[in-house]
UniProtKB/TrEMBL annotation, chain A:
Belongs to the binding-protein-dependent transport system permease family. This is ABC transporter permease. SUPFAM superfamilies: MetI-like. GO terms for cellular component: plasma membrane. It is a multi-pass membrane protein. It is found in: Cell membrane. Keywords: Cell membrane, Membrane, Transmembrane, Transmembrane helix, Transport. InterPro entries: MetI-like, MetI-like_sf. GO terms for biological process: transmembrane transport.
TrEMBL record, chain B:
CDD domains: TM_PBP2. GO terms for biological process: transmembrane transport. This is Peptide ABC transporter. Keywords: Membrane, Transmembrane, Transmembrane helix, Transport. PANTHER family: OLIGO/DIPEPTIDE TRANSPORT, PERMEASE PROTEIN (DPPC-2), OLIGO_DIPEPTIDE TRANSPORT, PERMEASE PROTEIN (DPPC-2). Belongs to the binding-protein-dependent transport system permease family.
Amino acid sequence: MRFFKTYLLPRILMYFLVIVVGVTIVFIIPRLLPIDPIQQMIGQITSTGAYLDPKTLDYMIETLKELYGLKGTLWEQYWGFWRRLLKGDFGPSYYQFPVPVISLIRQSLPWTLGLLLTTTVVSWILGNVLGALGGYFPQKSWAKILDVISMVIRPMPYYVLALSLLLLFAYLIPIFPLGGGFLIGGRISFDLRSILILLKHAFLPAMSLILIGVFLWFQAMKLVVQSVKNEDFVSYARLGGLSQSKIVSRYVMRNAMLPQITGLALSLGQIFSGALITEIVFSYPGLGTLLYNAIFTGDYNLLMGIMTMSIFVITTSILVIDLLYPIFDPRVRYR
Amino acid sequence: MRTLKDLLRDGRFRFAFTVFLVLLALSVMSFFSPYDPYRWNVVPRDLPPQWPHVLGTTSTGQDLFWLLTFAVRNSLTMSLIASMVSRVIAIIIGLTAGHKGGKTEKILMFLSDSFLIIPLLLIILMFAVMVKGRMNLLGLGLLLGVFGWAWDARVIRSQVLSLRERDFTYTAILSGSSTLAIVFKEYMPFLIPLVFATLIGNMSWAIGMEIVLAILGVLNLETPMIGTMLYWAINYQSILLGYWWWILTPVTTSVFLFIALYLMSVSISEYLDPRMRIQRIGRA
């Protein structure tokens, strides 16, 4: 019961509050700017040379207002926005007109989630294992080499790294396709060949995300391990004659893991933005590419839909990690 | 000056500082440029690196070397505006939260937590899309500044929290100093180096954002910046056409710039306080 009150409840409350803040920002931004999306839309239509008589124009403005949720007072608009959101209704896309935004997102979300979850988990595990070893044996030459590589790769922006990988492995040494998620026009089924093609397309985008992720975790883990290493219980274990591998895995890593789990939760938000850029570089068919098209065509509805969706996805995954935390940390479990 | 001397003993800092000085020199050189960076077709097109065009020329007929000097200058100026603005916000929020405590602290930290969790790139992108092409250096700097303070406000707060518990604070309070006096006289000397270290980190974040926004084509693409240089190189298919010098120039410059800024902030914060190393964890 105390666990529920001091641990569970504040986190669930925080979850909903963050979503409210995020959605409110999404709602406010377009209304802060001195640009009228309806006038812009009308301008776009008339600039193609189509003639509209005043009556049709009025009717159109009216329907567009309805679509954008710009009717009534600000409060009414705000409630209307939430109501439609909770029903999963973001309105139609302008980029592919009558198709609702939500179904475009539904097509892209699995790609992004698949890429994001795999790369995050893989780089987290790999980075932590390497970091633990590198922190425990800092004098070994491989640890020093890893250190230098991480100094170079870590500060690189996602975009530049992704671009360099693309140049190297798709253009200079053409092993991997230049972009896309699957063969054009191909159908995805669950046989071996299909999965291989899928993996081949996902390899470079995943690689760029993993590379950056691994070294991020590597550095963080290394610092924690270096401080845990000198604590008493590790010295006792060493004096007690336990093997090196046992000390690293049972004693050092377990204790250094805890801040890393918190870090995993916090960095999910940042990684998500990175994944979007990576997708754009490799034209991977996820939310990032959808976003690019939305920007390119000035599709506000789609843009807003993607934003709200990512807020939901990120906050939910952070909540899940936070709720799993007690499994790893007995101090929280027995509080 | 003594601090600089101490810092220069660190090999990483020496390297980073040299790179940074070179980039600064480049941006100063932009004032002596023989070409207007906004004008196209002032030099022969698509020349590989050769005298007098040391870095070659672009398909838009611009000299890459002189264009680069403007790009570095503009990117640095923009990131400096952004990080100055966000420093002011971070200091105010971090100080207030750390010093006041209680409800104020809870609310302010909730605010900065939300900023950490929400995908900022998307929000900034949305702003940029809506003012498409009209975003100038100052506008972009302000926009990034308004959004880039959350993590550093947390760092400053944790520093203030520890300062608040120290003896000299109690002495000051007991001898009747006002809150403002305590903040400026007692806290500031400890906070300034910290603020400086986070400033560098924030500059690198701002330039990264600028590159992303430029690549997506939502900045004013005529302004020479590192991001817009990349944009035009990609837009003109410089890779496929074999004009490697065009894409290589901004890529190499940005890699050096990022590594320099990163190494500088790492070595400054390690110099300040070894515990800072732990605090940096989780910064993506």
